[in-house]
Amino acid sequence: MKKNFKAPFLFASYLYILKNFSLQGSAKICSLNLYTKYFMQFFHFSSGPAFLPPQIHQEIQAACNPKTSSKTPLLLISHRSDEFLSLIQQNILLAKKLLDIPDNFHILFLPTGASYHFYLSALNLLPPLHSAAFILSGYWSKKAYLAAANAGHTYIAASSEPDNFNHIPKKLNLQQNTQYLHITSNNTIYGTQFHQLPDSPVPIVADMSSDIFSKPIDWSNLGMVYACAQKNFGIPSLSLVIIREDMLGKTQKNIPEILDYQAHINSNSVYNTHSVLQVFVANRMLEWTHKQGGVQHFQHLSKQKSALVYQAIDENSLFNGTCINEDRSDMNICFTLPTNELENAFENHAENLGLSGLRGHRHLGGFRAALYNPIPLEAAEKLAEAIRTFKG
Ligand code: PMP
């Protein structure tokens, strides 16, 4: 019934797209596919850039369109305008409220991805004759470790690499004069997550790119948190950086201004030309996160969603979860099937049910379902159903 009701609407929309955007050949077909999929409960489980709530797409379109926007179209706004400075300030306040960030932390929204902070965190926080310890729990934590080594002395305090990163290593070997311990709170590619922060005698610096805003944060032993936007709060090329005041100013290095967190703090996150679109999308996403019920709501929802999918994986003997149960991520669920043929067949089965973006990382293969905040419970139910009903 529902689909019949939608058919005339979709056809009219298709005609509208063809008329108004005068696309050619395959682009027309592609536009129909995308448009149809979005309105027909199509769910995209990609690990980033991730699924955005449809209303956010509409808000972006309206803000960018010179015909419909009552204000200056978004892409023409100067990063020095009052409008933009107010957006950044709103984002800082929203992040502070959502994550209950204490007053002794600086909050920055910077026009970079998370990878920049692999190096910048060490450059800004690591004094001479001190070390940064790293927990290697997956691909990104190893990248962070290798990048930081260019800025000072680093070492591995624990690693699950010999076990193909199938768990979170728990036993730490910390050396003297360790300035901080770096972790990746959620391993986007391998599908494990720190369900609580490690017990560490030194402050923790955490890359929370793929689970920030999905649960409350315990700030008591955190020195710094950073995260890219494209999972839970926006689109690529924006990062959120949260630094405890006393972590800064100890390096005795002459850091070039553009790489110096203090310069970004001094200029209220607007040191140079900013990514206005990214900041706007983050603003809409943070507001949306707040309206949905904040991080407590998403913590509860994430647990519900991941439990449904893990249960289905565990019940169908054709599927194998790739991580040990206690460290399984609520954000990125990794699984495999025994052969390539079965994996291709499952991908088709899922696509036919309107579920896409499930293939694993290019280095790893298998499957990976990202259950970030914008993925509704209904999508997890559909995915669990797809896994349960797959017979090969
Ligand atoms: N850290 C983690 C945990 C990630 O998942 C990613 C991206 N998937 C990154 C860092 C790198 O982010 P960016 O591409 O924005 O530099």
Can you characterise this structure?
It is built from eleven helices and 14 strands. The chain is of the alpha/beta class. The chain has two domains: 2-59 and 293-389, Aspartate Aminotransferase, domain 1 (Alpha-Beta Complex), CATH 3.90.1150; 74-291, Aspartate Aminotransferase, domain 2 (3-Layer(aba) Sandwich), CATH 3.40.640. Strands 2-10-9-8-5-3-4 form a seven-stranded mixed β-sheet, sandwiched between helices. It has a three-stranded antiparallel β-sheet with strand order 11-12-14, with helices on one face. Strands 1-13 form a two-stranded parallel sheet. β6 (186-187) and β7 form a beta hairpin. α5 crosses α6 (139-148), α8 crosses α9 and α9 (294-315) packs parallel to α11 (377-389). The two termini are 30 Å apart. The structure holds 4'-deoxy-4'-aminopyridoxal-5'-phosphate (PMP). 4'-deoxy-4'-aminopyridoxal-5'-phosphate binds at residues 48, 113-115, 140, 184, 188, 207, 209-210, 228, 236.
